[in-house]
Each structure stands twice: as structure tokens, then as C-alpha cells.
Specification:
By secondary structure, the protein is of the alpha+beta class. About 50% of the residues lie in helices and about 10% in strands. The protein is globular, with a radius of gyration of 35 Å.
Length: about 1450
């Protein structure tokens, strides 16, 4: 309990009310003696006695949901509130809400019957929040008494809440629904509600079936906009608690099963809980969709501007109905035994507990005090119980579970929201664009997930252990071919459950052969030294490694561990076995370069050939430069920490030079070369990083092996105790990247064999050891991958020295007796002279084959259900498209479909198979049986064999006369096949599944696109494709594999990339040029046009990153760890690479380029995207209220020119002003502060240039036009306010709308003009022009000055337009009235940012007067604190 509240036990007595005294019933559970079941029964009893559920919905039949549908209207005495509810959407869109509420009568809520209290709390609280949060802050105003007074009474008198009133999850989410048509009647076994009667039914409160309540059948009983966004977003949270009603009873029975020590009952309950969590994750929560063609599409712009801000707490001391207030989340945390609530959101969860109604608090406390399910499972020896509990926890808090998918979806919505204008979240997160608040929220949500996994659990609760069934299923041995393997895993006794389309993730280990090679590289080829290092050298683990090897708990015993049971250090042998040794990563190479400054490594990084290396190659390259990763040289991080104290002042003092010299061992000349003129410790650290060789920690350069995901190739209905995999063994040959040779002799460089680490690990367990031994021999002997050594082996003399024998031993898992026997027979062979390769291979095979296998055949794995890739309903046809081992999930499909029987009307499922050759085709007998049974129609094509399948006989045969080799697109686009696809897709609503590599998927999707265009017409075909994706009728399961690295010659420069963001098509296009929309992730360039259609998160998020390097954003939400996301990128790969200048410029120029020009360009493109989307979504399209739909059109006149335009509502006018003000008040100050300082602060520009900059700034700041720009937004707001006072008027006046359209044009032109200046500067760096040339300095100065000239032109244009639209006298009068002064609100200094948050401070000051209590506005004035240091370097936090 102390872990949960962190404070004394809450007083659970119920606040005294009249009903309590009349009933004489009060819960006496403050001593904590009642069990969870008794608390629920007591809640049911007291609610029955009171005749309402004001103390909290709680019952076994309805869980946290109400027993009756919520009240929909008030009695006649409170008709004013009914009228308010009806008018609320119209009042919002016409900006008349505040005026209406100010004139509304104040009703006495004490006279309200208690049954209406929850409805009143929702109506009054929701309206009060809308009054306060929609539009400008009501500065100097208070919430009117007509809302405030009854709201206070309802909260305190009826609901028993202390302190200021607040809008709770209780009334705003769970009690806010009513059925659209017929109310689903409860089942006969449901206990009738005792207080249901005809009187309540007349107010809309009747009994209902909680299990049939979905957002398709109900809608909010209190509307703000009457738009689907409101219905979907709030409705999904409501449905979640209605659907999860059985969880309350399940938790109670689970604790009772623990007390009874009934493991069978507990397992059954965990199975039910797992099914419920999957339903909530994949069915209920997935209804919040961002794809435009989805049935439940939720427009992010509308949600962020209208729906989301309403519930923002009025003061910082009150609660909001955020997701952390969901009682279901609190119950699951108690069930799983969460023990950490340390970070921001954890503390919020703990605080929100006290806002719950008393029944919820009592129940949650009883669950916390009850028997611990987690402790019971941990102490149990039943592996199936461990697996079930771990599966439930993963489905709740894992990355693919409820909280993981909630994080992914919510962070996407919040990013769209905050970029398009939302100021603060329900939880109090706020910040500017550069603060990237959504990334901070993602981090906080990830911490929340980690805190839930921090409970003490055995490894078997986190993952399962199966055993690979060795040997060949058909007895055939294929040698030296890129072969596919059918691997079977024994999962009996693990409790694992999987369905068709599920994925299994294997925790692989590095190949023993690769481990041995790396040890030998460390030991310079000395075998004894390699053994000593492997066994004796201990590697201290960092936090990343500790977390990763937790899943290997069953493997580490008798090792020194820390308090959590995790090893603090492991020997080098184990470290390499659990480390990712191949292929090398860019991070590995960059750290290696920082340690050596090797020209070879630099060349590899420049050519992006890191995947051609393994870690042993990196060790060799470092050894050449005299760098030993196992040495005792302190790491750079340790040395930086020693001097950090000297640098915390923010400036580099000359007295620190001796410290730097001492810590880094630099001569004075080297220190001078660093050119320490930077103003921050971080900048110095950056320079030292590039100048000083730094030996990285071994845990930093080698990442731990992670899980590798595969599709399950079996149905558990057919193979209940096995799990099958169908894996392609990835291997290829490449030139050695570490061979020392000249360019003239590069053709003579030896070829080395590379293998996929995970596939090799799994397949090696299923292969006989003698096969592994022969493969190792052929690799050592230098045979090429496709060479048949059986024919050439007699001619090749082969000797096994000690090093080669050691490698062979590790690869084939030979034991000492076998090594000795092989060694003796080899000596005899040498005496007779028969040392051919084939003879040596024969000796090894005879000594190893049919001998006991000493290998550990166990593998650690997890299994998870795919959220989208699963079978549809029974009578829906499936179209399956498989490429290579993409056949795997479809085997599980057809095995399950065969159990269900044939489709009606003689329809059949359709299977397309594309393979390289007949040899790689598998499961032919099963496919033939499915065809004969009438389950499948099958089409097969080979890319290298000219043959066609023939199913007419008694077995599958291939016809070589009529067959043609080809690819999947040719198969799909056959004329008869297009007709068949048209029938299945259009007439039968077939679900289409595609599984294969990225290139295969790209070809197949393009072919499908063409087929749909032929079927529906070009434009409609693309719409149908998008619709199928949105409806989950087109589902892709794409996988990646290790490909042979190639040198690309298709580079793209940053100056070109930043121009590829015109998704709104507002810029003119050059003749014969196609408009490109690019995004960069990990240096790779991707085409976004098709990605818009296929991206599960919709197109808005992608458009925000058009023309940008989105690598950081990609990683921030964990996409780099999501195999399906990484694999999907291959479809859109342009084969182009963003050229890096990291090694093309000297240190000083590189700093200037990256921190100045590159950073400012990316910031500007992000702002340009956000502004374009904001105007498009907030002004051009969409409706923010149902009243906007039929506003019509009117003429707008500007400078004598009339245009026929759609009318815009007053609410849209408000959002337009917000968008413009966001550019002027936030975007430009942010752009022209730190990024511009980096740009213009370089000493190469000359001191005279700084004088010119200052003069330009002063003239701009002190100009009259700048003063007018400061006033423009407020003037427009006043004009809107005047329009809203006109009776029956709902739209923006035509003359004001014309002015707004012109303002929009200059807003967009400003950012485009600044970008053109930045592009010119970028191109100077990309051409690598010498800084000593006079043209370099002149061009750079012109570019930087051009930015200020663009701003000056913009200021003059806005002022000119304003003088045309408004009288000059009116503008002057307004400026005098607002007491605006020249230079007082400057665009070019960061103190301008302080004015942005001034409104929020005013809000809280006013709300303090209204609701009482102290206000904590620290998080809202965070930016004001930063402004103190804006023009100085005194704030040490700024550089961090």
C-alpha cells in the first residue's frame, strides 16, 4: 500500500449526506478488514439503498460502468440547463458561449434531486471548461455565477468532493453516453437494478446490456460540437470501461483463487483477462484512427483545437479527466502489483486516486491490500502460470500491448495538436515547438511502462523457453545454397498461446564462430590469450545491458549480481555471445572512429558500408591504429565528467586550460588548434569529441542482442504442442573490408561469407552438427557460397592448424574427445598425403555424425498476436500474397481455415506464391491437399525456373512446357486473375494479406494499385486502396533481412531535401518536373506519396516531417525497435542517401554548418509544415461544429477585386488568428533566437558584419510597422468580437475574411523566402568552398542579411495590408489603448516569448479568484524563466 499512495492510508469514510442519515448505512472499512468482494457487495447495497450511484459506479455486473443508462435531461425546474445543452454546439461555433452563460440564471443545485447530480456535474463542469478554455483567456473575467455556484454545490453537496470543483473522469467520460436507437436489453441472468422505475425511464435512465454498448450504438449525452471526433475519442474511453466490466469480478475471483491455492482456476481467469486485454487493445482502442478512409477516422486538427482543450483544468490544483484518471488503469496496476510511481505521470496517477468517488477508492484499496497475484505467481513452479501472468502483463504494459499502443497513438495526436495550436495537455505539459513536448510525454509514458515492469518477476514470466526439434523433416541435406528451413519448436508445458498471424520473437545469440573470431582479434591471433580473455576479462554492464539480459535470467547463475538479481559484470566470452557482433552498426563505427580517427573507418562511414563489417573487423581496424578496447584507458565520459564542474558556469575560462590539458593529455599546440571560443561546455565537448581520440566503453560500442521477430508457420489447432517457423537462411559473400591493399589490387581482395545473425542462430540449432562442421570447413577453405565443393574438393589441399581447429570446434560444438579423434585421423592422413578437402570433410562427418549432441537446444522467445494480421470472419474470403518465406503465416491460415470448412457458394480463398526456384518451394503436399479439398485456389510463379504448377493429378507436378518465369506483379495482373480479384474484392469484400520482403511488397502493392484502378477508375482506385488499408482489409506483414552492402551513387543534398515538402502544392513547379515529397530516416530517403496511403497513423503526421530528417522523431516513439515499422520503410525506399558532411568539412566549419545552417533549416521546414497544415485544417477545410456545415458562400472584396469564397465560421476565424499569432509570437522568435545566433555568430564573417546586423535589428524593432504587427492579432480578435455580437450572425465578415486571406499569403511567403536564403548558404558548404575565398564571406553575409530583409519585407507587408483593411486612426487608437511601445514587444529577442505565456498566467490568476486555492504555474512560466538568459550564457541548463 505504501508503494501506491506514498502517504498515510486514505480516510475511507463517506462524506455525510442526508441520504446517509436516512438509510443509516455507512461503510465501516477504514480498518481495511473488508475484502475486495465485500467492498463490491457493500457498494451495490449502498447504491441500492440510496437509489443512485453518486458514490461511484461499482458492481459485479457492470464493473465501473453505471447500472442504468445516464440521465439525459433535467426536470422542468432546471430547464435552463436543458436549453444550455441543446445550444452548446451553436454557441461554441458562433463565439456566443460566454455571453449566453453570463446572462443565464443561477439555479439552486441543493434543490436538485440526487439522481440528477452526475448529469449536473458533467453539464456544469464541461460548460465551465469550455467557457474558460475555448478562445482567448477571459482576462479580468470570472466564471459566471450561473455556472460556478451550482457546480460547487453539486461537487461538494451531492458528490462529496472537497476543495475546488473539478471535471472528473467519473461524470465526463463514463457517465456521458446514450444509445442512438434501441437500448440493448440486459440478458436474463443479469440481476435487475433495484432503483429502476418508470420515472427514471422518462429521463432516459433505463437498464441496458453493458456488453453490447459500442461507439457504433451510442453517442455522448452531452455534445460540444456534434462532430464524430468528439463521439469517437470520448466514446472509445467510455466503451473501454463498459467492455471491461467483467474485469472487476475477474480480479476479485483471482485473489480468491490465490487464497484457495487453486492454480487451475487462476489460469482460467488469466486466460480470460488476456482475451479481454487483447479486445481492449486491438478492437476498442484501435477505433481511434487517423486514416481518412477509416470508419472511425478522428481528425487530429479538429480534436486538438476543439475537443481536447476543453477539459484542460482551469487551475493547476484541480484534476482533469486524462487517461491516468481511468479507474481500469488503477485496477490493473493494483492487480499486477505496480510498485513504482516515481516520475511525473506516476505521481499524477497517485494524486488522481484521491479524486475518485468513495466506492472506487475503497475497492482499489481492498485490491491493493488483498493477496498479491504477482507474488503468488513468482513463488510458483508452474511455468504455464508464469507464462500466462507474463503474457497478461505484456498485453497490458508492453510495446504491443494496451499502454504501448496508447503511447504510440496519443503521442502522434499530441504532436499534431501542439504543432497546430494546442497550448497545454490535460496533465499540464506545455512548451514551444523547439521544446518538443510530445517527445517528453513519450518518454514519460515509456517510463510509466517500465515502472510497471519493474516488479520482481522471473525470466519465465517475461518470456518462454522452447526446445528446437533437431534434424531434417524430410531427411534431405542441401549444401551451400541460400536455403529455406522449416524449424519446429517444442512448446509443451510453456502455456504459450498463439493464433493465425501471430508473431514469435526469438532472443538470439551470436554465432560461436563469430565470438571466437572476435576473441582472436582481441588477442592478435594468440589462441591461449584469446581463451584467457574470454574467461577472465570481466565486462561491467551498463543499464541498457542489464535490462536486455534480464530475459536471460535462466542462463546466468553463480555470477555476482546486484540487488535486483541482474549481473553487474559478465566475462568477455558471455558478453560477446549475448552481444550484437554482426553486422556492424553506424553507431559502432562512429564510436570506433572517435577512438582512432582511422581513415579506413571514415571511408566506410562515408560510403555507408558499415553492414559489410562485423565487430571482429572493427577490432582489427582499431588494432591497426593502436587502440585496444580492453585497455585501462578511462573513457571519454569519465574524463568529461571530471572537467564538467569547471565548465558549469557556461563560459570557458582560460584558467580551465590546465585542467583540459591534464585530463586529455593534450599538448599546448593541440589545445590551441581546438579554438576554444565557444560559449558553452557542450560546444567545447563537441569540439573535443572531434579532436581528441576517445576510447568508448565496450557496452557502448557493442549493443546487446535483441529479439528477432518471425511469423508463426503453424496453427495451434493442428500442432497444440509445437510452434513452427519457416525461415530463410540469410547469407552472402562480400569483399573483406579490412584487407590491407591498394586500389590497384582491390580486385584481388578475398571474399568473406556473411550470415544473418538471428536466422543462423535458429537454423544452426536444427541442423546436424556435421553439416555445420562442413560449412565451417568450406568457409575456412575459401569456397564461394554457390560452389559445389564435392566436385572440387578432391583438388584442394587443406590443412587444419590450431587456430582453424579452434574455429571449427566453436562452430560445430565439438567436444574434446571428438577434437582429439579428428586430430589423430588428420595426422594419419598427412602421413599418407591424402589431405584433400573432401577427405578432411569425410573424416569430420564420420567422427561427428550420429554422436550424442551436446548442444543446448533451448531458445528464449515471446509470442504476441498481430493487431491487424489475423483471419477475418468465417464467411469472408482471404486473398493471400506470399513471397519467399512470406508463405509462413499463410500456412497457419490455411490449416485453421481447413478446420473451419469451405466457404459458401463454392467460393474459395486465393493464394499467390512467388518463389525463386522450385527448390525453395515448401509445403507443396499441404497446398495440394487444400486445393483438392476446395479450400484454396493457388497461383505459383518462379523468378528463375520456367515452369507452372499442375494440380489436376494426384499430386502437385510442374509443367516445364507452358511455364514462364516471372514476378508477382505478372501473376496478379493476368487478365483472368484481375476478373477474379474484382469478384472477390468488390462483390465479396475479401480481406487481402501480403507477406514478404520490402521490395516484393512494393511490387505487389503497385500491381494491386493498377488492378484497382482498372477496376474502379484511376482516382477511385487509389481511394479504394486507401479504404482497404483503413478498414484493415489490406494488411501487410513485411520483414527485413540482411542484404549485401552496395555503394550508392544516388546522393541527395540537404538543400534539395528541404524543398521536397510542398504537400499543399502551393509553390510553382518547373516544367517537366515531378513534385517530390521526401523524408529521411537513418540517412535513407523515402518517397512519401504512397506512404500517405499505407501509413497506419494517417497522412498528417507524415506531412509534418516532409522535407526533413525525421530520424530523431522516428526513434522517439520507438519505431526503430518495431520490426513492422522498419520493414515497411523498404516499400518506399528511393535508393537515395542523404549526403553527410561530417567528414567533408573541418571542425569549425562543421560546427557552423550543423549547429547553425542545418539546425535552422530543419527548424524552418518544420515550422513551414506546421503552418501549412494549420491553415489547411483550421481554415480551408473541416468543420469544428455541426452548425458550420451549411454556412454557404459569399463575395469577399479586396482592393476592388471580388472573389466568391466559402463562408468561414467565427470559430474558424478565431483559429485563423491563433495560427497567425503562432507564427508571429512563437515561430519567428524561436527561429531568430538560438538558431540565428549560431548562424550569424561566426567570426569568419568579420566584426563589421555584426555591426550591420545590430543596426538592422534596431531599425526593424523600432519601426512603426513592427508595432502594428504586434497589434494585428488583437485587432482581428476585436473585429471578430464585434461580429459575434450581431444577432444570428455566425460567420466571419467578408471584408475581414478577405484581409485574412492576404495575411495568410504573406505568412507563407515569409517562411519560403527565409528558406531560399538558407538553401543558398547550405549549397556553399555542399560545394565545400574554401572559407578563405572572398566570395565565401560575401555570399554567407548576403544570405544571413537576406533573412533579416525577408522579415523586414514581411513586417512592412503586414503593416501595409492592415492599413488598407483598418483605419489608421483605429490602429493608432488601439496601440495607445494597449500601451504598446516601440521595442517593447520585439520579434527578435527571446523575451518576446514571455508574452506568449502571459495569457496562461492571467488565466490562473483569474481562476484563483473564481475557484479558490493556490495556483502552481511553474510549468506554465517555464519559458519565462528561460528568457532571463536569452541574450546571455549564464544559464547552464540551456546548453543541455
Amino acid at each position: 500500500m505504501s508503494h501506491f499512495l506514498g502517504c498515510p492510508v486514505h480516510d475511507n469514510t463517506v462524506p455525510s449526506t442526508e441520504e446517509d442519515s436516512q438509510s443509516g448505512s455507512r461503510p465501516e472499512i477504514e480498518d481495511g478488514k473488508l475484502t475486495a468482494r465485500e467492498v463490491v457487495m457493500h457498494a451495490e447495497k449502498i447504491n441500492e439503498e440510496l437509489g443512485h450511484e453518486n458514490k461511484g459506479f461499482l458492481s459485479f455486473s457492470h464493473g465501473f460502468a453505471p447500472r442504468l443508462t445516464p440521465i439525459t435531461h433535467f426536470p422542468p425546474e432546471f430547464e435552463a440547463w436543458n436549453k444550455l445543452v441543446d445550444l452548446l454546439p451553436s454557441l461554441l461555433s458562433s463565439r456566443k458561449l460566454r455571453k449566453y452563460c453570463d446572462g443565464m440564471p443561477t439555479l439552486d443545485a441543493k434543490l436538485l434531486p440526487p439522481i440528477f447530480a452526475i448529469r449536473a456535474a458533467n453539464v456544469l463542469g464541461f460548460t465551465a471548461h469550455a467557457y474558460w478554455n475555448i478562445g482567448d483567456a477571459p482576462t479580468g473575467r470570472c466564471i459566471p455565477a450561473s455556472l460556478e455556484n451550482p457546480w460547487k454545490v453539486v461537487n461538494k453537496f451531492h458528490l462529496g468532493r472537497d476543495g475546488p470543483p473539478f471535471l472528473g473522469f467519473f461524470e465526463q467520460i463514463i457517465a456521458n453516453f446514450q444509445f442512438e436507437n434501441k437500448v440493448p436489453l440486459p440478458s436474463q441472468d443479469t440481476k435487475p437494478c433495484p432503483w429502476a422505475d418508470e420515472n427514471l425511464a422518462s429521463y432516459g435512465s433505463v437498464e441496458y446490456d453493458v456488453h453490447q454498448a459500442t461507439i457504433s450504438s451510442f453517442y455522448p449525452s452531452l455534445w460540444l460540437t456534434r462532430l464524430k471526433e468528439e463521439r469517437i475519442f470520448f466514446g472509445v474511453m467510455t466503451e473501454m470501461h463498459l467492455a471491461a466490466a467483467p474485469v472487476v469480478k475477474l480480479v476479485v475471483e483471482a485473489q480468491e483463487a490465490v487464497l484457495e491455492n487453486d492454480q487451475l482456476k487462476l489460469k482460467a481467469l488469466l486466460v480470460d483477462l488476456l482475451a479481454m486485454l487483447k479486445h481492449l487493445t486491438f478492437n476498442v482502442f484501435n477505433k481511434i484512427q487517423q486514416q481518412r478512409m477509416a470508419r472511425h477516422f478522428n481528425e487530429g486538427a479538429i480534436w486538438c483545437k476543439v475537443v481536447a482543450p476543453v477539459a484542460t483544468p482551469i487551475t493547476s490544483t484541480t484534476f482533469g479527466p486524462s487517461g491516468t484518471a481511468a479507474p481500469l488503469i488503477h485496477l490493473l496496476d493494483a492487480f499486477f502489483g505496480r510498485i513504482k510511481y516515481e516520475k511525473f505521470i506516476g505521481k499524477e496517477v497517485r494524486g488522481l486516486f484521491h479524486s475518485f468517488p468513495v466506492n472506487w477508492k475503497n475497492f482499489l484499496l481492498a485490491v491493493w491490500r488483498g493477496p498479491s497475484i504477482r507474488e503468488y505467481v513468482t513463488n510458483s513452479s508452474d511455468l504455464e502460470l508464469h507464462t500466462l501472468f507474463g503474457s497478461c502483463l505484456s498485453q497490458y504494459a508492453g510495446e504491443n500491448g494496451f499502454l504501448g499502443r496508447h503511447k504510440l497513438k496519443m503521442v502522434g495526436y499530441l504532436e499534431v495538436a501542439m504543432k497546430l495550436g494546442r497550448a497545454v495537455t490535460l496533465g499540464g505539459f506545455a512548451g514551444l515547438l523547439k521544446d518538443r513536448t510530445w517527445d517528453k510525454i513519450a518518454d514519460e509514458l515509456k517510463v510509466g511502462q517500465d515502472e510497471r515492469f519493474s516488479i520482481p518477476l522471473s525470466g519465465s514470466s517475461r518470456c518462454s523457453v522452447g526446445k528446437v526439434i533437431g534434424g531434417y523433416e524430410d531427411g534431405a541435406v542441401r549444401k551451400n545454397t541460400a536455403q529455406t528451413h522449416h524449424v519446429r519448436v517444442d512448446v509443451s508445458g510453456t502455456g504459450i498461446r498463439y493464433t493465425p498471424g501471430s508473431h514469435v520473437s526469438i532472443l538470439y545469440e551470436s554465432c560461436p564462430y563469430e565470438v571466437e573470431k572476435t576473441l582472436l582479434a582481441f588477442a592478435d591471433g594468440n589462441i591461449e590469450e584469446a581463451k584467457r580473455l574470454g574467461n577472465e576479462y570481466m565486462v561491467k554492464l551498463n543499464s541498457v545491458w542489464k535490462k536486455a539480459i534480464y530475459n536471460r535470467e535462466i542462463h546466468h547463475k553463480d555470477i555476482g549480481t546486484d540487488s535486483c538479481g541482474i549481473p553487474t559484470e559478465i566475462n568477455l566470452n558471455t558478453f560477446l555471445k549475448w552481444g550484437r557482433l554482426r553486422p556492424a552498426t553506424q553507431k559502432m563505427l562512429r564510436l570506433a572512429y572517435s577512438a582512432s580517427h582511422s581513415k579506413d573507418i571514415r571511408s566506410i562511414l562515408n560510403l555507408h558500408l558499415e553492414e559489410a563489417l562485423t565487430f571482429s573487423d572493427v577490432v582489427v581496424l582499431l588494432k591497426r591504429e593502436g587502440v585496444n578496447l580492453l585497455g585501462n584507458v578511462p573513457s571519454s565520459k569519465a574524463r568529461f565528467s571530471r572537467i564538467q564542474g569547471h565548465l558549469n558556469s557556461g563560459r570557458i575560462n582560460p584558467s580551465h586550460a590546465s585542467t583540459i590539458l591534464e585530463d586529455f593529455g593534450l599538448p599546448q599546440t593541440e589545445l590551441n588548434r581546438i579554438s576554444i571560443r565557444s560559449s558553452s561546455a557542450i560546444s567545447l565537448q563537441r569540439k573535443l569529441n572531434r579532436t581528441v581520440k576517445q576510447t568508448p566503453d565496450l557496452c557502448d560500442i557493442v549493443e546487446p542482442c535483441d529479439f528477432r521477430r518471425y511469423s508463426v508457420a503453424s496453427s495451434q489447432l493442428v500442432h497444440p504442442n509445437e510452434l513452427h517457423l519457416y525461415i530463410d537462411r540469410v547469407q552472402y559473400e562480400a569483399k573483406s573490408a579490412v584487407a590491407m591493399t591498394s586500389p590497384l589490387l582491390s580486385s584481388a581482395v578475398s571474399m568473406v561469407r556473411r550470415r544473418g545473425a538471428a536466422s543462423d542462430y535458429i537454423i544452426s540449432k536444427s541442423l546436424p552438427r556435421y553439416v555445420l562442421a562442413i560449412e565451417c570447413l568450406s568457409e575456412i577453405a575459401g569456397f564461394k557460397l554457390k560452389e559445389d565443393y564435392t566436385n572440387k574438393g578432391d583438388d584442394v589441399k587443406f590443412y587444419l592448424n590450431e587456430m582453424k581447429m579452434e574455429l571449427l570446434k566453436s562452430r560445430a560444438h565439438l567436444i574434446d574427445n571428438e577434437v582429439q579423434a579428428i586430430d589423430q585421423r588428420m595426422k594419419k592422413a598427412q602421413e599418407t598425403g591424402d589431405v584433400s578437402f573432401n577427405n578432411i570433410a569425410k573424416i569430420i562427418e564420420e567422427e561427428v555424425k550420429d554422436k550424442p549432441d551436446p548442444r543446448d537446444m533451448s531458445i528464449v522467445f515471446t509470442c504476441e498476436e498481430s493487431p491487424r494480421f489475423h483471419l477475418p470472419s468465417l464467411n469472408t474470403p482471404c486473398i493471400m500474397i506470399a513471397g519467399g518465406t512470406g508463405l509462413a503465416p499463410f500456412r497457419s491460415f490455411w490449416q485453421t481455415l481447413a478446420m473451419k470448412g469451405r466457404l459458401p457458394n463454392n467460393d474459395k480463398h486465393l493464394l499467390f506464391v512467388a518463389q525463386r526456384t522450385r527448390e525453395t518451394m515448401s509445403f507443396e503436399d499441404e497446398i495440394f491437399a487444400m486445393v483438392k479439398a476446395g479450400i484454396l485456389d493457388v497461383e505459383i510463379i518462379f523468378s528463375r525456373d520456367e515452369c507452372a504448377p499442375d494440380f489436376s493429378g494426384n499430386e502437385l507436378v510442374y509443367n516445364f512446357e507452358h511455364g514462364r518465369k516471372g514476378y508477382i506483379d505478372q501473376l496478379i495482373e493476368k487478365k483472368h486473375m484481375q476478373q477474379h480479384l474484382s469478384y472477390l474484392i468488390r462483390d465479396k469484400g475479401a480481406h487481402l494479406y501480403l507477406c514478404g520482403r520490402g521490395a516484393f511488397a512494393k511490387t505487389a502493392v503497385e500491381a494491386l494499385d493498377r488492378v484497382l484502378c482498372n477496376m474502379f477508375g484511376k482516382n477511385q482506385g487509389e481511394i479504394e486502396l486507401e479504404k482497404m488499408v483503413a478498414e484493415d482489409r489490406l494488411v501487410l506483414d513485411i520483414f527485413t533481412s540482411l542484404n549485401q552492402p552496395t555503394v550508392t551513387d544516388q546522393w541527395i543534398e540537404l538543400s534539395e531535401l528541404c524543398q521536397c515538402n510542398d504537400f499543399a502544392e502551393v509553390r510553382p513547379l518547373a516544367t517537366n518536373k515531378e513534385r517530390q515529397l521526401y523524408i529521411v530516416i537513418n540517412k535513407e530517403v523515402y518517397d512519401m506519396k504512397k506512404l500517405f496511403l499505407l501509413h497506419p497513423g494517417g497522412d498528417v503526421m507524415l506531412k509534418l516531417y516532409c522535407g526533413m530528417d525525421a530520424t530523431k522523431a522516428w526513434k522517439a516513439v520507438g519505431h526503430d525497435k518495431a520490426p513492422e515499422a522498419v520493414a515497411m520503410l523498404e516499400i518506399f525506399d528511393t535508393k537515395k542517401v542523404l549526403r553527410s558532411l561530417d567528414f567533408a568539412l573541418d571542425f569549425d566549419d562543421l560546427d557552423w554548418y550543423k549547429e547553425g545552417w542545418r539546425e535552422m533549416t530543419m527548424t524552418l521546414v518544420e515550422m513551414q509544415n506546421a503552418l501549412s497544415l494549420a491553415f489547411h485544417n483550421n481554415w480551408d477545410k473541416g468543420e469544428f461544429s455541426s452548425d458550420e456545415i451549411n454556412l454557404g458562400e459569399h463575395y469577399t472584396v479586396w482592393r476592388g477585386k471580388a472573389m466568391w469564397r466559402p463562408k468561414r465560421s467565427l470559430l474558424k476565424g478565431q483559429y485563423f488568428i491563433d495560427t497567425h499569432d503562432r507564427l508571429w509570437s512563437m515561430f519567428l522568435p524561436s527561429l531568430l533566437s538560438d538558431p540565428f545566433d549560431e548562424l550569424s555568430g561566426n567570426t569568419k564573417l568579420g566584426s563589421d558584419f555584426f555591426i550591420r546586423i545590430e543596426e538592422k535589428l534596431e531599425s526593424l524593432v523600432d519601426s512603426e510597422n513592427h508595432l502594428i504587427c504586434d497589434a494585428v492579432s488583437t485587432i482581428m480578435k476585436e473585429e471578430l468580437e464585434k461580429a459575434s455580437e450581431i444577432p444570428e450572425n455566425k460567420e466571419v465578415p467578408s471584408d475581414l475574411q478577405a484581409y485574412m486571406e492576404e495575411i495568410r499569403k504573406v505568412d507563407e511567403k515569409l517562411l519560403e523566402d527565409i528558406k531560399l536564403c538558407l538553401i543558398t548558404g547550405l549549397q556553399i558548404f555542399e560545394r565545400n568552398e574554401s572559407p578563405i575565398l572572398p566570395t565565401f564571406r560575401r555570399t554567407m553575409c548576403d544570405c544571413i542579411m537576406g533573412i533579416l530583409e525577408a522579415v523586414e519585407t514581411y513586417v512592412n507587408m503586414v503593416a501595409s495590408l492592415s492599413k488598407i483593411a483598418f483605419d489608421i486612426e483605429h490602429i493608432s487608437e488601439f496601440i495607445n489603448r494597449q500601451n504598446l511601445k516601440r521595442g517593447g514587444m520585439t520579434l527578435l529577442h527571446s523575451n518576446r516569448l514571455a508574452t506568449v505565456d502571459r495569457d496562461y498566467t492571467d488565466k490562473d490568476e483569474a481562476s484563483t479568484k473564481v475557484l479558490g486555492g493556490e495556483v502552481d504555474v511553474d510549468h506554465k512560466v517555464q519559458n519565462i524563466e528561460k528568457c532571463k538568459y536569452a541574450d546571455t550564457d549564464d544559464d547552464p541548463k540551456l546548453d543541455n
